Records
---
Amino acid sequence: MKLAGAVIGQYFPGASVVHLLDPRMKILAAFAYAVALFLVGGYPGLILMAAALAAAVAVARIPARWLLRAIKPIVFLAGFTFIFQLFLRGGEVLASIGPLDVYEEGVRHGAFLAARLVLLVLSSAVLTFTTAPVLLTDGFSRLLSPLGKLRLPAYELSLMMSIALRFIPTLLMELDRIIKAQKARGAEPGRGGLVRRARSVLPVMVPLFVLSFRHADELALAMESRCYRGGRGRTVRRRLKLRARDAVFMVIVAVTIAAALLV
Amino acid sequence: MQLEKSPLPARPASARILLSTPATGNDPLSEPMIIFEDCSYRYPHAGALRPALDKVDLAIGTGELVAVVGANGSGKSTLARMANGLLLPDGGSVRVKGMSTAEPGNLDAIRETVGMVFQNPESQIVANSVEDDIAFGLENIGLPVAEIEERIEEALGVFGLEELRGREPHWLSGGQKQRTVLAGVMALQPGLLVLDEPTSMLDPRSQREFIDYIDSLRRDGTAIIYITHIMREAATADRVVVLSEGRVVADAGPREVFSDEGLLRSAGLDAPLPVRLSRALDAPVALTLEELVG
Ligand SMILES: Nc1ncnc2c1ncn2[C@@H]1O[C@H](COP(=O)(O)OP(=O)(O)OP(=O)(O)O)[C@@H](O)[C@H]1O
Ligand SMILES: [Mg+2]
């Protein structure tokens, strides 16, 4: 259980075009990409989607190591998805495991679902890898701001997101520290059978929850002391400006998705 | 991660953060910046425990630096949270510039007047970079963008954070986090500054520089409540308030407070080193080593 190595919400600093794109456009593109993944009907479309993401990764020069770490938490889920689909009937029987037959159609479908899941996770990882948390927050808050007109708490929502981004690394570091402390006392969190594993994770999770509640409590006091009163009357400090490259990017995204859905 | 090399620079004479309050000095006739009157507080759910604060009377004027000392659990942090209405007294009152904290309509103005720095810097950083965190309070009070940028630059300069402006909070050292928090609070130009052990994570040199900075704020008319466990720091204050089990057991000049051995012992405190040395040498009470030698 190597959690400090996790990369949720982490930023991979760089100066590539992908890094420089307007955060709002990147968020919209990631969202459209996720939706399209679920609408794509078959392999040709999926391969096109994968190629588009690979291009973004290459341009942003994100190391393979980071990508592997990003999908590590879902390897099991993807594996299960694949195995469950194996026995779907259709096409030729490829192999027989005892009384169960593995059909060609099952393999095909299982691989499709697993690949879709991996692409989904990778695409959101590429968004956070290439967008500084500050800009990600700004982007979300700008995109949500029309909600304010509907009297929904747009600023509060984006602030929540920002605080989550702010504290995830802190909590991961604290989690790492707790695990080390437990190990020093002979515990082996995350090892052994399912029951033992669940039991050994408990002493790690409880202190973490306590810590995060304490953070939340103190943070609320600090925010109030610094004149936090919600979004009303608040200055918007940074204005985001769309540039030509953002327009080009959105055209590429639209064309890719349209092509993936039509092939 | 190593501590930032650049020290807290002496503040430039032109710095506007520091000229927030007109220097009215210690005018005994003017309304004090903050008054605690017969102020008591008991935490809910604390059962039959004694109150965290017990009939505290305290007044602090502009340009006054008051150190608050006391053992763990003596009520120092509770007192701090009373100062800007985060906690409201069960009995008695707290007034900032004449405004009672019990009146909800006053809280916005009170929070703009009182700057608060809590013990743990980690949970006081809201934003995802040093610069954005300094901006947080300024944005909240709706200042124009140009003024916000100006104040950010100034705060970055005063606290030696220029090179760390874009740094994410989890890559900051403890001392750097503490400076970020201080910068964010000072950028709001508070008239009363409440500091709860603000130097606990600073290296000795930064600690000394911070004390000098605090001293210059006081000269510009900021009222300061300085909670500390470091008696050497308390000795530089105008007044030292000793808390013990929620009660003010002393409120006098540092020389007077630190000369009273019995008082300190009953409050669970030690006198600063120079005082103990002068006592051992049977010399008159000295608050600093220079004084002892000179
Ligand atoms: N949230 C809380 N709920 C219940 N009791 C509390 C709470 N916070 C503090 N107390 C109690 O109130 C008393 C005063 O606590 P306070 O935090 O003000 O002490 P302190 O002087 O700041 O101590 P320290 O030097 O450790 O920071 C203590 O007895 C403490 O146990
Ligand atoms: Mg305290």
---
Amino acid sequence: MSTLTHPPATEASTTTTPPALAPQPVQLTTAREINPRVLAAWSRFKYAGLRFADVTGLSFLPPILRLLDGEETAKQWREIVRTLFVPAAAFALFLFAWTVVAPHHRTKSGVVPTPSAVWDAAQSIWAFHEREGKKESAYLMSGDERSTWLTAARERLTKLEPYEQAASRAVAEATVANQQSVESKIAPLVAQRKELEESIASAQQARLAAMETQQAALPSASVETKEAFLAAVRAHQEATEAERLELQQLDAKIQTARDRVDARLNGAKRTQTAIAEERQYLATLVDQLDGANQESKLDREISQLRNNQRDFLASAGSDILPAAMRVVQSERRINAVRESNYAKPWTLPMQIARSVACVFFGFAIGSLIAIPVGVLCGLSPTFMSAMTPFIALFKPVSPIVWLPIALIIVGGFIPDPNNNGMLSFLEALPLIGWMKINPAFIASAVTVALCSLWATLVNTALGVASVDKDYLNVARVLQLNFRDRLFKIIIPSALPLIFTGLRISLGVGWMVLIAGELLSSSEGIGKFVWDQFNNGASDSFAKMIVVVFIVGVIGLILDRLMVICQRLVSFDNSGLQV
Amino acid sequence: MSSRDQRYVELFQVGKTYPNAVGDPFTVVEEFDLIMRRGDVVSLIGHSGCGKSTVLSMVAGLNETSRGSIAIGGREISGPGPDRAVVFQAPCLMPWLTAYQNVRLGVDRVYPHATSAERHEVCEYYLAAVGLGDCLYRLPSELSGGMQQRVGIARAIALKPRLLLLDEPFGRLDSITRMELQDVILRTLDRESITTLLVTHDVDEALYMSDRVCMMTSGPRARIGQLLELPFCKPRQREAVLEHPLYYDLRACLVSFLEEQDTQRGRLQEVEFVSRIQQEVETLVENEVVRSPSPQVANSTTELAVVN
Ligand SMILES: Nc1ncnc2c1ncn2[C@@H]1O[C@H](COP(=O)(O)OP(=O)(O)O)[C@@H](O)[C@H]1O
Ligand SMILES: [Mg+2]
């Protein structure tokens, strides 16, 4: 990056003062000597950067590069402001509005989390993921590494103890302080309530007494006076109702004041929770390193096997068979332990990876169907007519309908998921084995395919049908056979539109997938959201909002990837070989 | 020349009518008769929109005739054939293929039994012949318009056609590039002696490039107005043609025909004028008049004003 600090010669020359009367070219060219190799490297870097920005559509990059090069400074600044600062400012404004508005909306799952609470939730999601990874490796650890980890974990546990005590103390103190401040805030309200209650009671009594005396004095025959009395009773009833409402409002006010938890108590509680979580994690880690560790389990089983073997050799008569059985069972247990693994729960990063794999799987299925069918549709109007009813009928069907159907159909192909050749083959594969591909995964992928293939199909058909007539004339003059015409003329010419379709498909697929996972309980982002919705922990809401951003960012990345592919194949855009 | 060579390309009473959804069918050309000898270079000249491209694409087999028939080498055609190659007005290169791959596309079909190395040589040879020896692997978007048209020419010639059809191949190029490419094509035609039909609306181009000029009347219902045999010797030299004593008369003849078409005046005087010039040409050719040195070297290519 040191090249960036060197402005190129052209700029250097313009910064020197212009020569007075007699021009002095020597001074102009050697004002600030710059190594030509550095200059060449910088301009290579600059052009590579510009091409990269062009392909990826990162529109804020070119003005920055040009600014560093000293090209039309004012114009570049304007561009930077427009492409970088304005979006950043808009986002900052959004965060600010969110921070201000969120705490005012109370829901059953607590207040709407602020950005900082969401950030904390994101960190806790990440911490959970890392800790589970460590536990898993701890289970498989052996030898010296295991013992060093074990001592480290134990040390940390002992170190944690004073912190934990301090944290509980802090919470206790903060609770008391909070209580006091709440009490002091409530006291006048309570007094006010008492006053109000008394005044209401006396007012009611007064009204009742008045009515009773009126009743006694009421002449029995007069209709008018009786109606006046009825009106008085009605007014009394209404007044009583209003008084009760007033009282209720005051009660609600007192309750909110009582529920108030001040920042100090909140902070203390958060620290306490964090420490408790770490302690629990360390306890599990120690267990995984010690008693539950694979190596130590194996040691136990092997010594058991030795004993059993000795017994077997020493046995005689009717003891031989049971002893032999025990030996065999020991051997089987050892094998089981060898193959066993830490029962790692799903963490969000794993679920994200599984979701992305699922969307690409579904997208691949959809594209493998849509592109050939679309090409046929584009080539043959007859075939297109044959396909039209299917396209028109199935395109608007929602994923919510496809998913149960896909689940049933996939379930029909895989009646026993625990004992299926294909699934166990997939599970044995190195990179995707951990994803535990199951019928729900396949059904989600099929749903993605069914919902997303239409855009590709229609665009491919359009692209193939609208190949430039000139190209087809050239193909006829060159007497190309069908294969060459298809693969050298028609498909390349339709590629930009095919990729437009693929891009739309991938976007649709990503949206459909989250809903599909939520419904099918296939492990993934959708499932994470559903679990959070159902579990109702204090930070569940915040975690769901974290997912909103993750889904958005991944969707954005997928879209950008497709844009890059699209631009790399679009021939009317030269110089795209980045 | 055998009689088949005398009538290598034969257009007999060819007509083309396009159906019109909202009116009478639109007849572009009618009763179009043309005979080309083997090795002939014939220019088809006429106003824009008179149906030159229509005739050419019917000969190429890209467009069906409505009436009449077209025979090449004694056989009536039905669709494009391996004996014909077309250079289009727009270069019509596949933008996703390099110059080399564009030429290779046709070469692979024409030489199905050749090895890959031989086909590669053929492509290189023809691209070098049009002066693109060192731009083989560039995409069309990295080539100038003239270079793209060169690739189009190389692609057509590499097919080893017996009939080359050129549809205003230089129409969109600047005049310097146009002169270069005219020479490129003439050299190729001299070397390979391919029968050629050249569509143009440029009088000087028609005079310089062809053995005969076929003038079309303005459409609709265009047909051949006049045929003009040119006296210039082969191989063509630009100066020799320009300095030829009859050059300006011939040119005036073509221009006046086209102007007549413009104004749609009586055709009688014009026919007389053409036949008088033609007679002069014939007498000159018979007497083997040498070209007289002429002081003025006009070389600007006069384009006709586009009517309509
Ligand atoms: N497919 C078509 N349908 C209807 N009319 C056409 C079609 N193609 C060409 N024409 C008409 O035929 C006439 C001749 O066209 P064209 O042969 O391209 O002229 P030129 O090449 O001499 O300029 C034009 O008036 C044009 O409008
Ligand atoms: Mg034309």
